[in-house]
Design brief:
There is one protein chain. A hairpin with a 3-residue loop joins strand 3 and strand 4. Helix 9 packs antiparallel against helix 10. The protein has 2 domains: 211 residues, P-loop containing nucleotide triphosphate hydrolases (Rossmann fold); 123 residues, no CATH class. The longest helix is centred in the first third of the chain and has 17 residues. The chain is an alpha/beta fold.
Length: 375
């Protein structure tokens, strides 16, 4: 029997594709829709302004090699869910990035990021049905490093870890995600901030190749923190998002409300503040733009601002109006003085290090809080 005849017989035995045949599952092309389909327990609310912008940036990032992007956003804005979970997982199962590094402040924190991805690869049935060639345990499959069935490797490392020379077989890191690389100690320690900056430029920025994409995301803990310094560095694209993107026009009414809300000597100060707000709600909301109103409304954000974003207005005698004393005869550089300015609404609210006008000189919130608590 000729070879051609044998091929004809082979193809004759294959099932015919008809209009009634079930087509194979087609992966969803858009990242945001993909995340809602396969990570539905994480994506339960409508997208914010930040999420829509981020999805557009990440959609074709694997085709824009050598991208360096720094993101500043407030805590609770789901930046880690998007950049440290959804995007690396999406890139891994599609095979877009052969070697992914997840970096965070500590090794244990980085392991948590990797563990979230592992959980989806092990337990997400929809993901396994759509990507059978990718989803599955390879070797190794540990708490610090995993390899998928398609050969993609994902590794978790803490700040300060040795990165140079790491490979997944022949591949050097193709995607590096740096999620909150600093902690609260960096707010008051110039030495720690400089150490992190040096490590990032020596180890992280040179860990891959010129084609490696690097994403850095975090909350601004200090005006000179790593993520804000990157925004001022050539070669980096920086973007800042705030919980309140545009303040209400009638901030004078919010100032009156704040005096009531912070009158801690009055046991009913919160109730009276709420009554004032309810009476002036329309005017106090005029022209305000929120980053994610489905998660946090304006009143709660302003309460947060009044509670942790600024020192209490009363008692006035306890508000510091001088810079810290020199240490060993030298200026105290653990805070950042700027004449006539002091830190404004907390970075927890705004996602950046804002400054508002005040009498006297600048003090960090850490110094103000410490004095208030001891007074």
């Amino acid at each position: 029997m000729s070879r051609l005849r044998r091929l004809e017989q082979h193809f004759a035995t294959l099932p015919r594709i008809t209009s009634n045949s079930n087509p194979p599952v087609c992966p969803i092309a858009q990242l945001d829709a993909w995340a809602r389909r396969y990570l539905d327990s994480y994506f339960t609310r409508p997208c914010s302004l930040f999420h829509r912008w981020l999805a557009d940036q990440l959609q074709d990032l694997h085709n824009r090699r050598g991208t360096r992007l720094g993101l500043v956003a407030p805590r609770g804005s789901a930046k880690s869910t998007w950049v440290s979970l959804a995007y690396p997982l999406w890139a891994a199962v599609h095979g877009y990035e052969p070697y992914i590094l997840l970096l965070s402040d500590t090794q244990s924190q980085a392991r948590l990021l990797l563990e979230a991805i592992k959980r989806e690869l092990e337990d997400n049935r929809a993901l396994a049905e759509t990507y059978p060639a990718a989803v599955g345990q390879g070797s190794p499959w540990g708490q610090d490093r995993i390899r998928l069935a398609n050969g993609v490797a994902i590794e978790a490392l803490g700040t300060g870890a040795k990165i140079r020379g790491r490979r997944n077989r022949a591949d050097r890191p193709s995607l590096i995600v740096v999620d909150d690389p600093e902690n609260d100690a960096h707010v008051t320690s110039t030495v720690q901030r400089e150490r992190s900056w040096s490590w990032f430029n020596r180890a992280v920025a040179n860990a891959g190749t010129p084609q490696t994409n690097i994403l850095v995301l975090g909350t601004a803990l200090h005006h000179d923190c790593l993520v804000l310094r990157l925004a001022r560095t050539a070669g980096w694209n920086g973007k800042t998002f705030r919980a309140i993107e545009k303040w209400p026009d009638r901030m004078d009414l919010w100032k009156e409300w704040e005096l009531i809300y912070q009158d801690y000597e009055d046991p009913a100060h919160e109730l009276k503040a709420r009554e004032f707000y309810d009476h002036n709600r329309k005017a106090m909301h005029a022209d305000a733009v929120l980053l994610w109103p489905e998660r946090e409304d304006l009143y709660n954000l302003m309460c947060l601002r009044a509670t942790i974003g600024m020192p209490p207005l009363r008692p006035r005698s306890k508000v510091i109006r001088s810079i810290p004393r020199p240490v060993n005869g030298r200026p105290n550089t653990s805070v950042a003085p700027a004449s006539g300015l002091r830190p404004g609404p907390s970075s927890l609210l705004c996602g950046h290090w804002p400054l508002i006008r005040a009498r006297g000189r600048t003090l960090t919130m850490a110094i103000i809080r410490r004095t208030l608590s001891s007074g």
